[in-house]
Amino acid sequence: MKKAQEHGSKIKVKSTLVELDGDEMTRVMWKMVKEKLLFPYLDMNLDYYDLGLQKRDETDDKITVDAANAIKKHGVGVKCATITPNKDRMKEYHLKKEWPSPNGTIRAILDGTVFRSPILAKNIPPSVRNWVKPIHIGRHAYGDVYKNQEIRVPGPGKGELTFTPADGSQPIKLTIHDFKAPGILQGIHNKDNSINSFAKACFTYALDQHVPLWFATKDTISKTYDARFRQIFQEEFEKNWKQKYEDAGIEYFYTLIDDAVARIMKSEGGILWACKNYDGDVLSDMLGSAYGSLAMMTSVLVSPDGYFEYEAAHGTVQKHYYKYLKGEKTSSNPMALIFAWTGALKKRGELDNTPDVVKFAHTLEQASLETIENGIMTGDLLRVAAPSKKNKQVYTEEFIDAIAEHLKKKIG
Ligand code: NAP
Ligand code: MG
User: Fold this and answer.
1) Cα 357 to middle of ligand 1, angstroms
2) CA of 284 to the centre of ligand 2 (A)
3) Which of 9, 140, 333, 358 has the least C-beta neighbours within 10 A?
């Protein structure tokens, strides 16, 4: 890196990186991050896709599909937050239709699992004192209660669970409950191949991050359904990961979900916690808030075929954007967007075997964290920061400028 600077040249990112632009306040910050923190130092070949809502509407959402295929082609993508339109957005942007969630479309094409990790700064203490290392969460994103069928039982009658084989053989039928009075019924499902691809993604990501993998279900109560999750994880571990985990000195640990929750509260972090769909939904929000701010949570989609897409876990920060449009200054936090870029650059550098790219990404992360640790921060962080006379709330652009200045010093 030093050499590149001395020669007045930039660090070369060898392979193409796929860039997915987005909407509202995150689009505004995205541009600043590129211009002030990345372009001065990096020579990148970016395959750019504008996933801003207007462009998605213009292209009948083809651009989202093209972007996902570009990630398949090049291996690594970095994505800004995007609007998932609803009725209000349709009116606001004069849309042809309510286009689906870009993240949903991309996930369906790459078949991935989403992992979330908090960014830790020394002066932003987690609500749980002993969580000194990040707890990463991997959430299974298929089935269970999110693809259920439910019945409001009006009165006495028999609730049954039936499976009718496609080959015409005898149906399997179980009585769920003999109702004597009104009540409720629910049917859920999952698929072996989806659970297996979730397991593969978790084993891959934990090894990649060099942290132990925890998985938990309630298989003492759910002796067929949850037990199948446990069994698939165990089989996958024995078949493809046992030796690699031994070599790396990390473990795969299975326990009951209530035991896992109790242990997490006492742990120091530094683990990947694989969660079933509902557990991941609830627990990732708990972790996000316990670690300080939504704007300090990063997210990466890891496909079983080895494609990676990095983004911030938060949305487009709509309310801040409306203020920005009125010409008011906002104190929006770009940290998770910056870390989406550094995550993608580190992965690109690792795959390309270009350590100076990895080193630059690491330096940018340090410069960003040290800026906060020096007391310069956005409003969301000031509310939860350890009290200090140094602490000062700054506007979005001032914060990015402060990071840029610190980065320049660190590199120069
Ligand atoms: P949001 O953008 O995550 O913002 C919710 C609130 O969290 C904000 O109003 C703000 O609180 C705080 N916040 C989030 N990010 C922040 C940041 N970087 N800096 C400072 N504060 C931050 O969620 P939303 O307002 O519910 O959704 C807005 C749009 O984002 C929606 O159209 C939705 O479809 C989209 N969305 C996209 C993604 C994605 O692309 N991955 C994910 C979620 C939502 P205060 O207002 O209190 O300051
Ligand atoms: Mg949730």
Assistant:
1) 30
2) 7
3) 9
